[in-house]
Amino acid sequence: MKKSNSLIGLDLTKWEDPAKFDTQLKVFTDHLLSYFTSDKLLALFAGKDHDFARMAALPLLNEFVEKFDKSIKSLKASRLYKDEEKVEKFGQLIKLYFQVLEKWSTIIAQGSIQYNMFWPLDTYLTELQKRASNRPADANQLLPTPGFNVAAATLGSAAEFSSLSMPKTLEDIFTTIHQSLIVITSALQSNVDISKLNIPSLLKQIDTLITTPWDAWGYNTFHLSLMGLTLSKGQLHFFYNLPLQFHSAQFELIYNKRSSSVKLSFKFFGIGRSRWNNIALTSFLSSIANDIALSQVQVTDTGVEFTLHITKSFDEKELTSLLHDTVSIANWALVDDKFIQRAYAKNPEKVLASLQTITKDIQEKMIGRLVIIDPERCLHTATKNKQIPITVRLLFLSSFAENGQKLNIVLPDIVSYLTNNSSSIRANTLRVLNSIALNGHALDPILSTAIPLLKDGDSLVRTEAVKILNTIASKGHELDTILSTAIPLLKDGDSSVKNQALKILNTIALNWHALDTILSIATSLLKEGDSSLKNQALKILNERLNTIALNWHALDTILSTAITLLKDGDSSLKNQALKILNTIASKRHTLDTFLSTAITLLKDGDSSVKNQALETLKTIASKRYDLDTILSAAIPLLKDGDSLMRTEAIKILNTIASRGHELDIILSAAIPLIKDGDSLVRTEAVKILNTIASKGHELDIILSAAIPLLKDDSVFVKENAVTILNIIASQGNIATYICAQYHIRPLPFMTIVGGMSYILYKTYSTISEPIKFTWFLFNWLRSKKEIFSTT
Known about the structure:
There is one protein chain. With about 800 residues, the chain is of the alpha+beta class. Helices cover about 60% and strands about 5% of the residues. β4 and β5 (about 245-255) form a beta hairpin. α16 (about 390-400) packs antiparallel against α17. Residues about 735-755, about 755-770 and about 785-790 have low confidence and may be disordered.
């Protein structure tokens, strides 16, 4: 009772004031946190005794969780803290919140909460604690990660704790801990025999139905486990869990006493959008076929959720069928076509009429199947049933037309929607026509239909019409007509229309058509005074010039155009120009011009420009052109403060080394970089050693540099070090060194193979490829076999 009064009396407003935070934290820690994590309190839940005391303490635990939650939210909502200070204090409270989770997780009865086989409780808590520690003082830490699925990350979800479900910010961690504590308090109430509770018989009936084990396809036995129950605000919640290989499922049975309504919520977690789309499709079909009310299905990359509204007249067989079907699909990601046919056949008209209630991606998946199962009824729905929304009818028409089915019937119906007053309908109709054109059907009528809509008053409609022209151009069809139509669109008032028109020029250039005309247009656009046109259109146009260059056409004209761009103040335009130079350089065209230009741009203030200049130098080096000049330009960049610059400079040195040029200079420049603080720089430096070793040059120096790298933190550095040893072993130059290093006398051949494998593998046991490591030992021993006794 005293602690309950302390919780009630806790003044949450004090968390909002930075000057009162430390005092409030001490009060909270000394009087509440210490008690709710004490062995004395938690001992009540450790055994089977103290039933009465346990039942009395459970509401107090829930009250503490709620009060802690509100404390953190009060701090977060305060406007009196600076961002860095708020993140720091927020982090302090999160660490304390984690202590509660860590302590309370010790009192959960074994088996009452399910865990993923690869993420047992200890692993889960260790990872969560690591993520809660040493967070950057960034205001973004107070925001949730877009798409974060807290239900999948919560303790007991049994989902794989993958990158998609991993909490990334302090806010994510806060929510995860809070929901996990609720799972624990629910689990502490799970030792309840529902059949003995005074609850409606409908709840008992559903509980029995869903917790009865069943076999699926003869491979697996599934069994839902009751995780816990809660009672709040007139609602009784039962929570169930079901592990599914790398995925998991949770079910929630909800009874509302006031309305006497019963709902059963399904939640599936894991990675695999197609899997969740299949479940959504199955739940939709099954609920209609079995006359079970279904709420809006929510599908994300990390799971799917939906809720059934169950009445007293529900059919046990049909609910069981829906449960088993969705779980089977969650486990194997497959939808049986026979199931779709069976469910659809029960009530086809209702299925078709209900398509408008589900999301578009599920609609498309469903309609694609139905058109195959029942083409005549679907065709009637698409062309005659005006009660079906236009968007759904268009999906049916599109599904027929994309495969060229009944094109003469459906195409006029599709085209008729282009006169609709709704611009979104017109744009959607053009998308359908584009999908038909992509499959090479009806190109002439679609082109003649799309051209008038280039003058539509809505820019979205015009954009979709231009996309159709691009699609038809990609088929090499009516290129002159499309080119003459596209050129005026370069002056359209909408940037997306202009960009799509530029893409048409590129598509036509790829067809080796009208290259001179396109080049002339590109050059004239460079002289436009409209800055928005230069900054938006030219970024795309430069890539189109690049395409022309790839076709060996007008290289000198393109070169002068690109050099003009190098003087532009916009670094992104300079970047595009350098890409063009790189393309032309790859054709061995005027390399001296490019070399001097690229070296000059290494001093540019923009790192992306410098990076692209290095790429050009690497291209020229690959042509064996003036390697000394390139080498002298690249070496100073090995000390650049930007690790990306150092990495690209090392790649140039590697290109030169691969030509067998100035190996001593390159080796002495690379060896200091194998200790660089950036793992990517170290990896590229080791690759240089690899290249030089393959030339049989300075093997002793390279070997002594490579062996310590077997203990590097980066797996890529270690693997490249192993490759170096393998190269040296294949040349028969490592046996003497290894024997001297480990004081091994000549022994029978196979004894040395085993002994050396063991010694080196144990010494460098962190290496990721022990088989590869052993294989290189075998290679060098075999190559030097004559120095050992063979008796």
